[in-house]
Amino acid sequence: MSTNKKCSMLLRVVLVLVLVGVGVAGGYYLWGRSPVPQAFFVRLGTNEVFPVRDGFLSLISSARQEVLVAQMEEEDIVWLEEALASVSADTSVRIIITPKNSTKFSQLTGMGFKIEPLDTQGALHHKFIVVDGKTVLTGSDKWWGNAVLVTNTTVAESFRREFDYLWDLTKPLAASEPDWDKKSCLERLNAARFADLVPVKGIGGIRALRILEYRESHGNFSTVDELTEVYDIGPALRTAILEKLGCSTP
Asked: Mind spelling out the 3-state secondary structure of 105-122?
């Protein structure tokens, strides 16, 4: 290879290295100077962005009547504890957490807040906060991801209904109630809660939710065979559910 060709190739290599270096250095420079270097919230209808921590604390500490917090995990404890410390004793606070973190939220229970664990077992869920029935924070499943802050009573009411639905799912087994043995198979099916259905082999969170949603939209089952009208529930699963509820025949 001629000397000129060697020099040309060397210059190309040097140029590539310089460009890569400039790109990396520039990226770090711009990232470090960014007004939102990590996660941020966006206020709906505006271009306003603000840091996650400030927005999170400000939202909850502004509550005067009610705070509803859904699907909290271990990494949320510090922020929640700090934000809720400034909430007045007259403010109702309900928090739904993932079961694996139940013991880690004990300090919040000690602060007098109502906390219930919910394992949706494969069913999709998202985090959200509703404050005073008018403001909603929702978005990514991690607070360090992007999120949207919405101040709208209609939107807040829909999220509040969703929270109440999830809160209802945290209720313990209906089968543990005193009159359970006196109920017929149909009565047990119509009384069954999320906790009664989830453990059935082959059901899990998604199918359990489908059964409850079917019952919510169509009313109580008129026969146990109607259970197979629920999407993806066939005769085998119908039998498994009835056996789990303590009966195998109508």
From this structure: HHHHHHCCCEEEECCCCC
Final residue before a domain boundary, out of 134, 169, 204: 169
Q: Please tell me the total count of domains within the chain.
A: 3
For 94, 110, 157, 231, the CA distances from 167, given in Å and listed in that order, are 9, 20, 15, 24
Reported as a single tens digit per residue, the pLDDT across 56-111 is 788 888 899 999 998 777 777 777 888 888 888 889 999 888 776 667 777 777 77
CB 148 within 8 Å of CB 138: yes
Residues of the domain holding 20: 1-34
Cα 155 from Cα 13, distance rounded (Å): 57
Q: Is residue 250 part of a domain?
A: no
76 and 124 share one domain: yes
The residues with which 92 forms a beta bridge, in sequence order, are 66
Query: 44 and 117 share a domain?
Result: yes
Q: Is the pTM of this model over 0.70?
A: no
In this structure, the answer to whether residues 28 and 57 fall within a common structural domain is no
